[in-house]
Amino acid sequence: MPNVQVLLKESVEKLGDIGEIVTVKPGYARNYLLPQGLATLPTIGEIRSVEKKKEKIEKLNKETKAKAEEINSKLLEIASIEIKAKAGESGKLFGAITTKEIAEVLNEKLGEEFKVDKKQVNLKRGIHEVGKYPVKIKLHPEVSTEIEVVVSPEAQP
User: Fold this and answer.
1) Distance between CA atoms of 110 and 137, rounded to whole angstroms?
2) Distance between CA 5 and CA 22 in Å, rounded?
3) Percentage with pLDDT > 90 across the chain
4) pTM (2 d.p.)
5) What is the pLDDT of residues 5-28, one digit of tens each?
6) CATH: 3.40.930.10, 3.40.50.150, 3.40.5.10, 3.40.50.970. Which one for 4-61?
7) Helices (H), ranges, the chain
8) Distance, CA of 75 to CA of 98 (rounded, Å)
9) What pLDDT does residue 75 have?
10) Cα dist from 28 to 8, 19, 25, 149, whole Å
11) 8, 120, 125, 157: least CB-packed within 10 angstroms?
């Protein structure tokens, strides 16, 4: 059976972006792309509809990228944050510093108009010791920065 052409309604990893007409095996189109709503048959009406959707997505993407760049410039001004945590004599923390805590401290420093979500903080696993750690903040697929997180022990009473 010959391959078929489909119009992508969504971006599909390792296949193509929204609005592209791609050639795929008929089973892949019939069993996955079409039922999931990821693609459709490339009729003139569908092509126009997908182009309008693509324009809206691109406009929204530009707006979110501009906002991400604003936040990025603010983060570059901050450069590093300090988080105090309870720690033992050897410098091991009682618990861990997580992406949520880092995002909260960043949001306090950034102010009301800018927000960083904990999902944007790229931390492989929690921080468990006192010290300095580089942490990547991914604000947008094209905009990311790195800040320094300084973990210091809380003063013991």
Assistant:
1) 14
2) 5
3) 34
4) 0.68
5) 999 988 888 998 888 999 999 999
6) 3.40.5.10
7) 26-28, 44-78, 99-110
8) 18
9) 86
10) 13, 18, 5, 46
11) 157
